[in-house]
Amino acid sequence: MSSANSIDSVAIRFAGDSGDGMQLTGDRFTLETAIFGNDLVTFPNFPAEIRAPAGTVAGVSSFQVHFSDHEILTPGDAPDVLVVMNPAALKANIGDLPPGRTVIANVDNFDERSLHKAEYDSDPLHDGTLDGYTVFEVPMTTLTVEAAKTVGAKPRDAERSKNFFALGLVSWLYSRPIEPTLEWNRAKFSKDTLVADANEAALRAGWNYGDTTEMFTGVRYEVAPAKLEPGTYRSISGNTATSYGLIAGAQAAGLPLFLASYPITPASDILHELSRHKNFGVRTMQAEDEIAAITLAIGAAFGGHLGVTTTSGPGLDLKAEALGLAVQLEIPLVVVDVQRGGPSTGLPTKTEQADLLHAMFGRHGESPVPILAASTPGDCFDSAIAACRIAVTHMTPVILLVDGYLANGSQPWKLPDPNAIERFPVEFATEPNHVAEDGSSEFWPYARDERLVRPWAVPGTPGLEHRIGGIEHADGTGHISYTPANHQHMTEVRAEKVARIADDLPPLQVSGADDADALVLGWGSTFGAIEEGVRRHNQGGGRAAHAHLHQLNPFPSNLRVVLDAYDKVLVPEMNSGQLAFLIQGHFVKRVRSLSKVAGVPFTAGEVAEAIAALSAERDDPEGHQ
Amino acid sequence: MSEPQGATAATLTRKDFQTDQEVRWCPGCGDYTILASVQNFLVEIGADKSKTVFISGIGCSSRFPYYMDTYGIHSIHGRAPAVATGLATARPDLDVWVITGDGDALSIGGNHFIHALRRNVNLKILLFNNMIYGLTKGQYSPTSELGKITKSSPAGTADHPFNTVSLALGAEATFVARTLDMDRPLTEETLRAAHRHKGASFVEIWQNCNVFNDKAFELVTGKSSRADNQIRLQHGEKITFGPDRERGVRFTPQGRAEIVEVADVGIDEIAVHDAHREDPSLAFSLSRLSNGPYGPTPIGVFRDVDRPTYGELVEHQILAAQERHGPGDLASLFASGSTWTVG
Ligand code: SF4
């Protein structure tokens, strides 16, 4: 057994054809790593097609896992080890691998046909393309077929287990425990034991290959467990965390959860997950279209359920009119937008943060909607609860912005104590709230409390029968009203009601250097890259601070004070400067936009570089752009 | 057949279902009569106001909820069936009605309309068909006759219209009926059948828009022509019509409905209407007898069959899940999958 050197963190990328099972390999490796006790962040990246043409660069799917013995926040700027199952995977990923690092290639697939499909004229393993890299050629397919033969699998079937060979080899390389994968495999394929046996044989063969050949001596590393806060952990993706947050949020509100959604990448997993938890009283509907999804949820909300719809950009476009209805009805509703690259169909499986202005302004008329954004996979849980809380306590639709990177990425998540989740039980109106001129008591659906919030009376409550609608109505009574003064008043009231939500939200926190010369202001999934980028900059002697917005509308009440404390403000976002636009318009303050719309998240290095560049600039009182 | 009377119901009158809102339809609009029919019907069945909900989209007819002192939503164009589906699924205890029009349900909201029917959501969908856009001042609708000249079709339309009943039957509706605004007894009888039906009840109401499409239904509703042109469907009875019931409907061997003189074919040849027939093809054939108010037209209940409602199936799944897994427990939900402990 070869000994291992120790190292504080490693990023490993598994890449192969969409049909090679790379996402599964990454998931299993992630779980082994989590159980081993490292901190970790993952980044799955896959094409939109279910089966893109096999062997082509377009069909490459990858999964990067970054794990460490300390807290980490990003999937790693670049991989340390790249595992490629075919030439296309090499071609698609080698550009991200810095020289000197390691490639492990399934040499069996570097035949002429596969090279041709990947549009290589010569074999990159031997033509000098990989000079400067440490390359291991492993005949994974052959060894998998050999191993699987012993359990009776036919070569054609056995070949499919080659991702387990890769997993076994990499697990050995980093001393990961394979028992969890073995258990999972047996449970998953309990009905098809031949597949289970072949996978197990391949996994063990991969492990043993590393252990018995002396090949990997120089690159075998140990990454010690991280010192995470004590507690029970699991690995969680953003979509799962959002689903759990919605269930917990509904419980905290004391309402049944009603989810209506139309299938859309990358949000569908929330619909799938919630559909599995009917025992929580969760009603899920797969709607006939995106418009139906939101209007179904509005109908359920009128009936006293916590109405939720989940979608991605194209769906948010379609929901715009109904969101306006919810604004006008002043009815609680949670809309989760798992953003993806746009416009139109755009990049269904790739991440982007370009729906911010759409969430903010994407409806006709003056139509204010509170907007929250989750910053990490685990934060999707807290953000979903916060969205539920704001919706029911302020009688308003709420948009929660997530994105593809958070939705599919995963992180260790310390299990929250259900009893520690703050409750916000809804009290429906049960009594009339107004005395008419003739002395009789009435119910006014738009009578407001001091926060401008109207009462929620649900059908089945005798005496509180009332009508609400999308048409402009008088404050108080809710009767149709077209008078100029009323529309002016209602427009202002709806805006002010949303603005006052800021009183109910935590102030913006600033991390990083105390005497910082620059502030990096971010929102949503850029959290990890920005925080890490700021730390790196400060470790190198810089003085930057980081503030991260979880509320985009209304902004935290102290945002102006925070901004005023810095001359230089950098706003990194995965769009062309949408938060920067809002900040400049709202606060009349010049900020520097750092934009990335490549379908992949920022690296910490990119953020650190931009901070360094901004800090180095001479102070320019005019601001600069 | 009479519905059970609630204890408080006996004391309610039509006035209890009226709101203090001024009704703003044009004088003479067919909507007034329908409103009166619905209010009378609710009084008659002893409806519980607090459990009755009217949901509408956009259009003249969609102002209806504002005139009903029940719960109600005036929603957005075409989406009332979806809003109502959400409510009826969340709250199976409620009596949920959808008020819609030909443009609302069949044009902008066509998708929600057909899906509410095929799901068999527990809703009463009243479609006020006036074959025109009224609120937007007179454009042709998806039920306007081919060649109709309107502001948006000065040369006449090139659009073949929907046959509303055929469409509903094709969408797997379990209850499909047609009534006429002015015929209050028929409307109330039809509402009674629709209300008795479990699941989605679709009622098309031919409604005169006296401003933009006056007398569109005259042939079928007018005093002088109606006896010749109303084919009143009654479950279990021979389908005959005419002043002396001298005409009738029979099905050809291919299943097509055709109008015949009873004297020519003999009464035994005349079909007996079977609204409860599982197979919808005969009801569909009946719907093809006319494609609008242009000749003898069946009115009344075309189809009324049992199928589990969407809400029942959803509730059943929830109860089954709770029986199998117990009520949801957050701690075990969070810990599902593989966990590990630190410290
Ligand atoms: S426009 Fe026609 S349908 Fe509309 S209210 Fe007037 S008469 Fe009735």
What is the alpha-carbon Rg of chain B in Å? 22 Å
CATH class of the largest domain in chain B: Alpha Beta
Write the CATH architecture name of the largest domain in chain B. 3-Layer(aba) Sandwich
Shape of chain B: globular
The most extensive interface between chains reads: A-B, 73 and 59 residues
Series of secondary-structure elements of chain B, N-terminal to C-terminal: HEEHEHHEHEHEHHEEEEHHEHHE
Written overview of the protein:
The complex is a heterodimer of chains A (about 625) and B (about 350). Chain A is globular, with a radius of gyration of 27 Å. Chain A has four domains: about 5-220, Pyruvate-ferredoxin oxidoreductase, PFOR, domain III (Pyruvate-ferredoxin Oxidoreductase, domain 3, 3-Layer(aba) Sandwich); about 240-420, Thiamin diphosphate (ThDP)-binding fold, Pyr/PP domains (Rossmann fold, 3-Layer(aba) Sandwich), CATH 3.40.50.970; about 425-465 and about 475-505, no CATH class; about 510-615, 3-Layer(aba) Sandwich (Rossmann fold), CATH 3.40.50.920. Chain A is an alpha/beta fold. In chain A, the strands form six sheets. Chain A has a seven-stranded mixed beta sheet, with helices on both faces. Chain A starts with a strand and ends in a 9-residue tail after the last helix. Chain B is an alpha/beta fold and about 350 residues long. Chain B has two domains: about 1-215 and about 310-345, Thiamin diphosphate (ThDP)-binding fold, Pyr/PP domains (Rossmann fold), CATH 3.40.50; about 230-295, no CATH class. In chain B, the strands form two sheets. An eight-stranded mixed beta sheet of chain B has the order 2-1-3-4-6-5-11-7, sandwiched between helices. Chain B has a three-stranded antiparallel beta sheet with strand order 8-9-10. In chain B, helix 6 links the parallel strand 5 and strand 6 (about 200-205). The longest helix of chain B is centred in the first third of the chain and has 16 residues, at about 30-45. The model of chain B is unreliable at about 1-10 (pLDDT under 50). Classes of the chains: A alpha/beta (about 625), B alpha/beta (about 350). At the A-B interface, helix 1, strand 9, helix 9, helix 11 and helix 12 of A face strand 1, strand 2, helix 2, helix 4 and helix 11 of B. Strand 19 (about 465-470) of chain A pairs parallel with strand 2 of chain B. The complex binds iron/sulfur cluster. Iron/sulfur cluster binds near residues 130 and 134 of chain B.
